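Good day; I would like, with your permission, to put a structural problem before you. A protein sequence and the structure tokens that stand for its backbone fold form the material at issue. I would ask you to consider whether the tokens describe a fold that such a sequence might reasonably adopt. I set the record out below, with my sincere thanks for your time.
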Amino acid sequence: MIGSFTFVLHSHLPYARQAGRWPHGEEWVHEALTETYIPLLNGLYDLRQEGVPFKLTIGLTPVLLEQLADELIKDNFESFIGEKVERAAADCRRFEAMSGSRLSVAQFWLEFYEGVRDSFVNRYNRDVVGAFADLARTRNLDILTSAATHGYLPLLSRDSSIRGQLRTGTRASQRHLGFQPASIWLPECAYRPAITTNGRTRPPLEAFLSEADIECFFVETHLVEGGKPAGKAAGDAVGPYGEIRKRYALQGAPARESSATTLQPYLVGDSDVAVLARNSRTGLQVWSGDHGYPGDYWYREFHKKDGVSGLHYWRISGASVELADKEDYRPDKAFARTDDHAEHFVSLVEEVFSEYQQNSGRQGIVVAAYDTELFGHWWFEGVAWLTKVLRRLAADPEIDLTTASDHITDNPPPEAIALPEGSWGQGGNNFTWYNADTQWMWPIIYEAESTMEELARIASPDNVDAANQAARELLLLQASDWPFLVTTGQAREYAVQRFLSHVDRFNELAGCIRYGVISSDRAAELFELDKVFPDIDYRDFAAHATS
């Protein structure tokens, strides 16, 4: 055995229930179900049915679980995928009299969308969350939890908010999955050590994780190795992540000396919580916008769509080929390339292990971490590549294909490490979420955090519903998605509107509670708008809360 390997996929979407369709809102969820989550489930279920002993680590954020389990979103998704089927069928009729490959690609899309719809309705009985949980019960998956709404924990001003995010999140994960995950994906892979503010020392994040019975979390490469940010954190990435460059000159986290390696787990500080870091060498092979697999010329071009149906009929074609000059997509050629790329990736993993063993005399673990939505959505053929890598690694006698929790259990970390503050955002620090475009949001968040502590103290038994709804609005306004979307400019107006709407609702409820106005009806009305975290407990947001 030369080493252990786990994919770590981070699945998260902004809360978008009843938030409209294209270009922003609930369609985010529909697209991810169509192109990523259901195809991924199909690939994993096929592997399990074939008896392939695969293992994979996947994070499903609590706010994503709430959306995937919501009956209204399920109904809307069926309408969405039905429209896709109709558009593909119409394209088949439109291209029937034309020569060339366009008709065959239209037929490919028709079969694809019909297959997704059939899987959702019949294979998984409309229960995508239950389908993931079932894979966890057979120990094929290690499912991670996260903070409730993906709040950016290092920048929250109150310990009560960190506890509220984690307690609400772990409670939601247990409710949906039937068990509490042992490991967590920190929102935006963001960590902070103990800090001193106003003469008071606030605990490091691992202290809150230990309170929540979390055994393991993940950080970006440079937090462990001490070098400069690379890959996604440096802006060299496929998908939307490089867009911040157009607006800012990046300020990277400073390099520091470290003898630690991403190929080993460590205990963090004096806690019993372990940390694993993303391996940059394998990560760059997928993330890199310059030499990553998703940039292969045969793969589907994401940005060019048919003017009538909105479907994709073109391939990347070349690094400098303009959209107008893209060549026709060839699904057969594209999916054949995933075989080559899967074989290359496995050989790269073997090479990493061999070099590490020769240099250190130890076996290591490779943590290959990516956003789940990269596969299928941004890189359409990526799900096929992923399942082919799992198949190869499961059959490799020299590699232990494992999960994060299993590896920590089987290999308790003998060493401890002190981590600096940082994230996998641009520059490797907090910049993406706190900058000239977003700094106006944080005093509003801080005031709401302080107010929530007050509400937790003064709420009367008659206003429990209002206090719980205020806690929901606090969580929703704290979501890291809103400053992220403002910074990238991808959906700035939408993000600002969502943020301010939750602020207004929070302040309305706070006023009712402060003045003793019984507002259970209003709280119920607001709950119906987002219908998230039905078992929330406002007392989790009290100052100096204890476990």
Q: What stands out?
A: DSSP finds 17 helices and eleven strands in the chain. Confidence is low (pLDDT under 50) at residues 236-255.
